[in-house]
Every structure is written in C-alpha cells, then in structure tokens.
Amino acid sequence: MRILLVEDDELLGKGIRSGLAQEGGYTVDWLKDGQSAEHALVTEHFDLVILDIGLPKRDGFEVLRNIRSQGVQTPLIILSARESVLDRVKGLDTGADDYLPKPFDLSELFARLRALQRRSAGRAETLIQYGDIKLDPASQSVYQEEGRINISPREFALLHKLLESTGRVLSREQLSQSLYGWDTEIDSNAVEVHIHNLRKKLGSKLIQTVRGIGYMIDREI
Ligand code: CA
User: Fold this and answer.
1) Cys-Cys link to 120, which of 23, 57, 75, 209 (CB 3.0-4.6 A)?
2) 51 CA distance to ligand 1 middle (Å)
3) What pTM did the predictor assign?
4) How far is CA 79 from CA 4, 24, 50, 96, 168, in A?
5) What's the topology of domain 128-217?
C-alpha cells in the first residue's frame, strides 16, 4: 500500500513514517511542500494520501481542490492543527475523505487509514476473504485453511494489493511502485521474487501471470 505523506513538520513526519513502517505493509513517500505534493499526485499513483493543511508553497486546501478538479480520486485524510469546525467542514467539502485534528494518536490515524482503504476498495468488512484465504489488514496476517501463513511485510503488501484489485491486471511497474515508492535501491526482479514466494506459500494457481503485462488474481467465481 503506497502512501503519500505531505507534512512539513519534521518531527511529526518522521513519527508517522516510522510508525507506518512498524505497522508493516505500507510504503511511505514523504513530501514537505504543497507544490511538489500536487505534482506527485497528478503524475503518480498512490493508494492513500495524508495531507497537512499549513504547508509551504501551497496550502493543503489548495492542493486538495486542484487535484480533485484534475480527477485525482485517491482517498485522502487531512491532518490539521486548525481546530475550528469550519475548517473541518471546508476540508471535507473540498474533497477530503476524513479529517484528523492535531494532536492525535498514531493508532487512530492508522485505524482511519485502514477504514479509508476498505471503503475505497468497496468493502465494509475488515477481513478480506478470497476462497480459503483470509487477509487481515489490522494485524497484517494471512490465514489459509490450515492456519496462519508465515508471510513477510512486502509479501503481505503485494498480496493485499492484488486482492484489492481482483480481475484487474497490475503491471510489474505498478506493483513495484506500490511496494517501494521512490526507494531506488531495489532489485529489478524484486516483484517476481515476492510472487514466487507467495505462490510457494499459497498455491501456484492463485496469482496468474499475464504474459507481457503483469499479474492478477481473478475475480472470485
Ligand atoms: Ca504544517
């Protein structure tokens, strides 16, 4: 799950980033001003956005208005120290999906991110079920009939992404970006290695290779 974090406060940004890293299954790209955030959001794919309001170069409300008017539908949560009801209403009416006033507890932010993710994938239930596989985003665990599967955070993220997109082919680039973001020090066949491991753990038929395009998990019949 690739998240764009837009926050100019160093301490808070670091806290959120390392917290999400500990949660596992998230890739966080972090920007500190509104202008570069807007550019990234209209040119690249993110699964979720955490957006501060008071930002250098362009404030969060303006970024939000601009990306929504350009058709960017990425689920977005605003973080803001402004506590007035009017600001929250403005944020939501400008196109935010949620609003969390500062200061907040990281566990609440993470629960809200999971909720946004569920809703954007059209789910209300917290567990993702597919055949005999159950994936639990809150505890980052995967179960199959026989019990809990031993799975790495990257494998979890990859499986989660494919299960949220059943019936759609995802290219290697899409999957790699979703797993690694702007982290450049990645092995070019990292995605293949994770897919290979997932097949070993969950059976070879689950993830299909679409030659020349990418990978997919079929819609459940
Ligand atoms: Ca700020």
Assistant:
1) 75
2) 9
3) 0.85
4) 13, 21, 7, 10, 32
5) Arc Repressor Mutant, subunit A (1.10.10)
